[in-house]
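Re: the request from the purification team.
They wanted to know what the chain is likely to look like in 3D before they choose a buffer screen. I agreed to run a prediction and write the result into the notebook, where they can find it.
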Amino acid sequence: MLEITPAKVVEVIFLSRETTASAEAELRGLFAAMNVDERAHLTALAWVGRGTYAPEEFDQAVVVAEVEASAPTAEYLLGMTDLAENLEAGLEAMGIDVTAEEEDLL
């Protein structure tokens, strides 16, 4: 079960698509406000989305994200190529309707 709301993931998706300094600052603030579980689940979702883990391996990905976190989540995720696309694909792989979540946020 996800320890981060799909709405929060969609907010990260939207902000990570922006290329402005203010969007990056807002995204960093969002990461800083997340608890440890939310950050680990967000990272695991990105890994599922890029194909590092299969959806049925999500729990394992969360454990790895918690244990092997050697850099701040913001630095790691902001350095990830295609973060928004990976998170979208991760949500979809976990059976969450991204379009509905995006419409709710707008």
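For the purification team: Residues 36-50 form the longest helix (15 residues).
Please add any questions underneath this entry.
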